[in-house]
């Protein structure tokens, strides 16, 4: 891997980083986004079934007591808005889980700071967003070193990319070359 490392340019820049520590088996031990989507879909199905029952009861009730039927209908609409708001907040939170931070990155790995420690050899699921193009790369990584930075209480992770698709690796290489070129142009200006 050290020979491979020398073949790639390495730059320091700001990248969107989201990661999830995986177990030794390479599987997530947290909630998987697909599971969350299935749970949300199941919840929405349940809500739709309840809405059907509520509408039926409101039709029956509207003949005998239209004011109460109207009140129950308004409460149902209010509850639907709250549920929709909560679902939108959950989607926003999952998107904001990606943190924009300075990383030292190449086509074969990266280094970055984290508030938590990671064991050497730990496996990661990574989502990287490259700016300004906002290109998102999904890959796996392996922690090759994790060192506590004196005084800050933060950990510097060194991660090798594993099983990155050729397409994503090519996008990353192109991005690094463009960014390095831009950084050199900026240095020459000053």
Automatic annotation (TrEMBL):
<protein>
    <recommendedName>
        <fullName>PilZ domain-containing protein</fullName>
    </recommendedName>
</protein>
<dbReference type="GO" id="GO:0035438">
    <property type="term" value="F:cyclic-di-GMP binding"/>
</dbReference>
<dbReference type="InterPro" id="IPR009875">
    <property type="entry name" value="PilZ_domain"/>
</dbReference>
<dbReference type="Pfam" id="PF07238">
    <property type="entry name" value="PilZ"/>
</dbReference>
<feature type="domain" description="PilZ">
    <location>
        <begin position="102"/>
        <end position="176"/>
    </location>
</feature>
